[in-house]
Amino acid sequence: MVSKHNPSGNKKRSPLSIFAVIGLCCFFYILGAWQRSGFGKGDSIALEVTKQADCSIFTNLNFETHHNDVEIVEPSKPKAQVFKPCDVKYTDYTPCQEQDRAMKFPRDNMIYRERHCPPEEEKLHCLIPAPKGYMTPFEWPKSCDYVHYANVPHKSLTVEKAVQNWVQFKGNVFKFPGGGTMFPQGADAYIDELASVIPIADGSVRTALDTGCGVASWGAYMLKRNVLAMSFAPRDNHEAQVQFALERGVPAVIGVLGSINLPYPSRAFDMAQCSRCLIPWTANDGMYLMEVDRVLRPGGYWVLSGPPINWKTYYQVWKRTKEDLKAEQKKIEELAEQLCWEKKYEKGDIAIFRKKVNDKSCRRNSANMCKPRGSDDVWYKKMETCITPFPKVSSASEVAGGELKKFPARLFAVPPHISKGLVEGVSVESYQEDNKLWKKHVNAYKRINRLIGTARYRNVMDMNAGLGGFAAALESPKSWVMNVVPTIGKDTLGVIYERGLIGIYHDWCEGFSTYPRTYDLIHANGVFSLYQDKCSFEDILLEMDRILRPEGAVIFRDDVDVLNKVRKIAGGMRWDTKMNDHEDGPLVPEKILVAVKQYWVGGIKGNSTSSAE
Predict the structure, then answer these.
(1) What is the CA radius of gyration of the chain?
(2) Measuring CA to CA, which residue among 362, 351, 353 is closest to residue 400?
């Protein structure tokens, strides 16, 4: 068929056009080959860029969070300091209770046994070594009865207190039969007698104070009855008694009834006891008994076993006259009446008093009442010979300060301090939200470290406890938490005790009142943000290292910039660290830094559990 535009219908292409197409193809082929050879101008630019770019393939990708985790090297500042081990003579170093410094202070009112911290120029800037042969403590409940000799190599109490069954040395371990000066046959029978008067079994009694605790066998056996005892004793000639207590997994601190207030809030404890603690209760017009009254909750119990109780039987053993002991007991009972206590029981070696629930039926001398100063402003405050007033009540049956639920309901019930609006900025709603938040946080911690919540971490410390949410979320018979409320922060320690938890006031610019290697897990929430303008991060971290056991763990929660400073210092402390994102994702500036202290002991090189030395 013939096309309209091509009448011939089959016109042939000219040879010239075919040669032109072939020529163009050959030209572009040669041009491409020339440029691939690297001699083309455009390709030389591309080649130079390729040379400058690092296109290596990385085989060791690190998926750890790196949010703002880049170290800024400043020419004027040295690299992170590597801290050396202290001399082995500092193995049991307690900075604020050292014997040499203590002997420079007066002995009156036990002042020399109180806290006396070193000045800045005398602080140690090295790592406290563990003793040779140190071993991970036995897990609870075995630790209640056995302690490795290598961890606390002090035998003097096994001789001095042998008859009283405090502690025995067998092979390479110490055994604790559960005895005490006033209960040489064991604490259980002694507690059974107390429980015939005091409602220990039903959760009414949850927090207790043991003054002059020895090796804390009373506290250890009270733990088995779900009662948390805060035990204290001085660092004195009864060598390492508080260290033994903590090694057993029992709450204890170095402390003494002396010239300053105890570091606990008013109305903290459901009961207190003195088992031959040898505290002169009638001295200074009853000042020490008034201090126990301050920290004893309305309706709480005080137990006195030992002198002068049962003086008719023991006056010759105690090498005192009948008249002297009789007068002392009479004076104690008169003081108890002034404090609004009733004697509920006296049999054999034990007397039990109960503090009334309010002052409606008390006969008190108003001239002897303490002046208002903020009842819980007690850090380094001079103890006074005065009676702490009861909180006001509207009826004779009302419990002063607020009635508490029985434990464990008490743990998450709204504490009276909060329901009465006594904690600034904290409402019932915000308290309940805080509890939810800490349950979430603790669940995240357990995902990071599966040992949290197990008996491996028995002794736990929260350095900035807030409302006690961390400890409440962690509550278990497998562990206990020392809730520390910094003296420069909001005072919430009263709330913590009302929840059935224990704790203490402390300033982290100073050493804590404990021996080295006494905590398995330390939680530091916002501690370094709180103290960043107050004292050196280095000092706080070295103190944390002192009280942390080898292969113990630390959880820091803070702003990422603060944690990077912490991590840099920790890098020179034989700690292994890892930064983790906040539970809500990498965009949250608050991060979680987890650290594990390496195992190493004094006097031996290259014995660390990590290659970092």
Answers:
(1) 34
(2) 362
Cβ-based burial of 463 (10 A; exposed 0-12, middle 13-18, buried ≥19): buried
Residue pair 367/351 in contact (Cβ under 8 Å)? The answer is no
Please state, in angstroms and rounded to a whole number, the distance separating the CA atoms of residues 518 and 235. Answer: 15
Total residues belonging to the chain: 613
Over 60: is that where the pLDDT of 9 sits? no
d(CA 184, CA 193): 14
pLDDT the model gives residue 240: 84
CATH assignment of 409-597, among 3.40.50.410, 1.10.10.10, 3.40.50.150, 3.40.30.10: 3.40.50.150
Query: Looking at per-residue confidence, does 99 or 28 come out higher?
Result: 99
Copy the structure tokens of residue 258: 């002396």
Per-residue DSSP letter, 190: H
Query: pLDDT tens, 144-203?
Result: 999 999 999 988 777 676 566 778 888 899 999 887 777 877 899 999 999 999 999 999
Tell the residue number behind the tokens 């509920």, with chain if given.
Answer: 344
pLDDT at 30: 58
Residue with tokens 């409402």: 427
pLDDT at 608: 63
Q: Hey, what are 41's tokens?
A: 């101008």
Q: How far apart are CA 526 and CA 580, in angstroms?
A: 15
Instruction: Tell me what the pLDDT averaged over the chain comes to.
Output: 88
SS3 601: strand
- Among 236, 318, 219, which Cα is nearest to 275's? 219
CA 439, 230, 420, 356 dihedral sign is positive
Q: Which two tokens stand for residue 459?
A: 């002794």
- Given this model, what pLDDT does residue 180 score? 75
pLDDT score of 25: 61
For residues 260, 262, 267, 268, the Cα torsion angle rounded to the nearest 10 degrees is: 170
What pLDDT shows up at residue 376? 84
Q: Which is higher by pLDDT, 269 or 47?
A: 269
Judged by phi (left if over 0) then psi (alpha if -120 to 50, else beta), residue 589 lies in alpha
Q: For residue 174, list its beta bridge partners.
A: 147, 169
Question: pTM score, two decimals?
Answer: 0.86
Q: Which two tokens stand for residue 115?
A: 């806290």
How many whole angstroms separate alpha carbon 231 and alpha carbon 252? 5
Quote the CA–CA distance of 209 and 50 in Å, as a whole number: 73
What confidence score (pLDDT) does residue 35 get?
Answer: 47
- Common-topology check for domains 178-355 and 409-597: yes
The highest-level CATH class for domain 178-355 is alpha beta
Domain ranges of the chain: 178-355, 409-597
Half-sphere exposure of residue 158: CA atoms within 13 angstroms, side-chain side: 15
Q: Kindly tell me the number of DSSP H helices and DSSP E strands found in the chain.
A: 17, 17
DSSP H or E segment with residue 522 = strand 519-525
